[in-house]
């Protein structure tokens, strides 16, 4: 018996472990979570550049709240509009698989949320990891109504790079020393280009180089030797921006919620709406270093805001900390505003981490998007809602002479992955034409 037990024991242990592993692998590996948030869009006094404006914000915050989720999670955001303007919120970069109506552009996927009204957005983040953001999608409210959306890997999974000690979102923005709605209204009225902004901002603050801004300059703390992740978002309205941190190299590891093949550089260029995730190692002598951004403006003769926004990267052991003014932070030398060569080197260096299979056989089908303003929004909204129709024309195989005939027989087979109901309506309308 003793001998048998000796044989059986390791066998049983092995069997037990095997069964345990089997059950573990058949169970869902992670639990997706639903995150509930309340966004109250409201006017809030915000003082910048020596003057206080009644700024439209979310929950009184400028920039607005940072949303943090894991890949696979669902967001439910109830937006209540207590401002005097129409508003919608767009989830910039979220793929909105089968939830096109949660995308947010007013008069396109929804009617605006009227003053006093509310709307609940519900969508799931699927297959995207990194940094995105959200912003208002009505008139120019997005000048101040925006915030970060951080998507971490599924629980139990990790980044494709060593885990950073800290993660800091840096939102680059544009500030008008005026009501942004008035700026765009004036442009529409006169037909001229809208006035350029008066400042750029990092996390809502213009920084040391602007009037009345020094004491509120954003400080990003670091410890010597640590590697941190910066999630940089260009939430400016219209401006492409160069971004640099004095004396530090940045390793780009992601952009627009996709991982990238790591690329080390000293300068970034972000178009409005784009995000870039970088790793930064605090490998310089303990001190204060400026984080700075300014315009990349390549259109000849077009006016642009030619100012520079700064924040401070501050080593914990720096001899002169934030409030101490005896030493100035080190300033990076930013590229010239029209340095297209630098911008191009940067954008060409963004590569996929692995080989991507793309279609190699390209057909000649046309892909046409049509917007039809057919659905009336409730009274008070001045415009009507646009609907997008995705139409695939048949492959153009016939000779030229037969083209006219072909046009008669166009097959209105509407290719729309997500908007079946909307397209069904359109199909009926087209059928009655
Ligand atoms: Cu956007």
UniProtKB/TrEMBL annotation:
A GO term from the CC aspect: apoplast
Cofactor: Cu cation
Cross-referenced CDD domains: CuRO_1_LCC_plant, CuRO_2_LCC_plant
EC code: 1.10.3.2
Domain of life: Eukaryota
Annotated GO biological process: lignin catabolic process
Domain Plastocyanin-like residue range list: 41-154, 167-317
Keyword set includes Metal-binding: yes
Protein name as catalogued: laccase
Assigned protein family: Belongs to the multicopper oxidase family.
Alphabetical UniProt keywords: Apoplast, Copper, Lignin degradation, Metal-binding, Oxidoreductase, Repeat, Secreted, Signal
Protein's cellular compartments: Secreted, Extracellular space, Apoplast
UniProt catalytic activity: 4 hydroquinone + O2 = 4 benzosemiquinone + 2 H2O
InterPro entries (alphabetical): Cu-oxidase-like_N (IPR011707), Cu-oxidase_2nd (IPR001117), Cu-oxidase_fam (IPR045087), Cupredoxin (IPR008972), CuRO_1_LCC (IPR034288), CuRO_2_LCC (IPR034285)
Main location: secreted
Enzyme class: oxidoreductase
GO molecular function: copper ion binding; hydroquinone:oxygen oxidoreductase activity
Signal peptide start and end residues: 1-26
């Amino acid at each position: 018996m003793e001998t048998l037990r000796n044989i059986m024991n390791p066998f049983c242990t092995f069997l037990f472990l095997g069964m345990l592993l089997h059950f573990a692998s058949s169970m869902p590996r992670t639990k997706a979570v639903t995150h509930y948030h309340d966004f109250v869009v409201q006017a809030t006094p915000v003082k910048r550049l020596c003057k206080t404006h009644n700024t439209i914000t979310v929950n009184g915050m400028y920039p607005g709240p940072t949303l943090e989720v894991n890949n696979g999670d669902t967001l439910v955001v109830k937006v209540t509009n207590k401002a005097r303007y129409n508003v919608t919120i767009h989830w910039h970069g979220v793929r909105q698989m089968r939830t096109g109506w949660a995308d947010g552009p007013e008069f396109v996927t929804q009617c605006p949320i009227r003053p006093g009204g509310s709307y609940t957005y519900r969508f799931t983040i699927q297959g995207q990891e990194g940094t995105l953001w959200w912003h208002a999608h009505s008139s120019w409210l997005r000048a101040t109504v925006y915030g970060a959306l951080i998507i971490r890997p599924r629980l139990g999974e990790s980044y494709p790079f060593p885990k950073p000690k800290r993660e800091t979102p840096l939102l680059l923005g544009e500030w008008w020393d005026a009501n942004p709605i008035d700026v765009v209204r004036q442009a529409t009225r006169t037909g001229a280009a809208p006035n350029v902004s008066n400042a750029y901002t990092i996390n809502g603050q213009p920084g040391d180089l602007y009037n009345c801004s020094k004491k509120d300059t954003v400080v990003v703390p670091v410890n010597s030797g640590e590697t941190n992740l910066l999630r940089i978002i260009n939430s400016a309205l219209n401006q492409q921006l160069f971004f640099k941190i004095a004396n530090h190299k940045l390793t780009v590891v992601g952009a627009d919620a996709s991982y990238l093949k790591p690329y080390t550089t000293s300068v970034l260029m972000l178009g409005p709406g784009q995000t870039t995730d970088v790793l930064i190692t605090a490998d310089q002598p303990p001190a204060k270093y400026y984080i700075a951004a300014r315009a990349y403006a390549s259109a000849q003769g077009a006016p642009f805001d030619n100012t520079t926004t700064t924040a401070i990267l501050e080593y914990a052991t720096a001899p002169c900390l934030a409030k101490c003014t005896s030493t100035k932070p080190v300033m990076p030398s930013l590229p010239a505003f029209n340095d297209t060569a630098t911008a191009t080197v940067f954008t060409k260096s963004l590569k996929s981490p692995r080989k991507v299979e793309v279609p190699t056989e390209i057909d000649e089908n046309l892909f046409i998007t049509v917007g039809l303003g057919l659905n009336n929004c409730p009274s008070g909204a001045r415009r009507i809602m646009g609907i997008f129709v995705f139409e695939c024309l048949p492959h153009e195989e016939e000779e030229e002479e037969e083209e006219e005939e072909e046009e008669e027989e166009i097959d209105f087979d509407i290719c729309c992955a997500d908007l079946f109901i909307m397209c069904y309506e359109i199909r009926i309308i087209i059928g009655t034409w």
